[in-house]
Amino acid sequence: MDWQGLDALTDEEVIARAMTDPDNKPLTKDDARRMKRRPRAYVVRRALHMTQEEFAAAYSIPIGTLRDWEQGRTEPDQANRAYLKVIAVDPEFVKRALAQRPTGQKRAPAAAD
Questions:
Q1: How much is the pLDDT for 26?
Q2: How far lies 9's CA from each of 23, 27, 28, in Å?
Q3: Inter-CA distances, 101 with 22, 23, 68, 91, Å
Q4: Which residue has the higher pLDDT, 45 or 102?
Q5: Distance in angstroms (rounded) separating the CA atoms of residues 106 and 45
Q6: Over the stretch 81-93, which tens digit does the pLDDT of each residue have?
Q7: Which residue from 19, 6, 7, 72 is spatially nearest to 43, judged by alpha carbons?
Q8: What is the pLDDT of residues 16-37, one digit of tens each?
Q9: Is the torsion defined by CA of 100, 102, 104, 109 positive or negative?
Q10: At what angle do helices 40-47 and 78-89 cross, to 10 degrees?
Q11: Is pTM, for the whole model, over 0.70?
Q12: Which among 28, 61, 22, 31 has a CA at the least distance from the CA of 45?
């Protein structure tokens, strides 16, 4: 790839070249209006390659709530939007944090046989 040549192009030249590519034309305003925006919960879950059931279980989100978010019936409140953002940034940290018992909590006694 000739990066120097590409960097030397003007914006108008870049757009003109893009318009001549039949397989990868830029989106028009009409295209953008027709496209459906995916909810954040869906995007985060798919990026992690998880099913709804796996995602809900891993991050302690009720499955019905997750489905409502993904299908656009409801939207996460501000706290849940922040939670989804933290999951997106560091999903393994969130899993570890959820797996830890709160400080001072005692382990349940073992069942007697």
A1: 77
A2: 21, 20, 22
A3: 56, 53, 29, 18
A4: 45
A5: 33
A6: 999 999 999 999 9
A7: 72
A8: 888 888 888 778 888 888 888 8
A9: negative
A10: 20
A11: no
A12: 61
Do you know the residue count of the chain? Answer: 113
Domains of the chain: 40-100 (1.10.260.40)
**What's the whole-number mean pLDDT along residues 11-16?**
88
Give mean pLDDT, residues 27-55: 92
Please provide the DSSP assignment of 8-60 as one string: HS-HHHHHHHHHT-TTSPPPPHHHHHHSPPPPHHHHHHHHTT--HHHHHHHTT
**CA-CA distances (angstroms) from residue 106 to 94, 99, 101?**
22, 14, 9
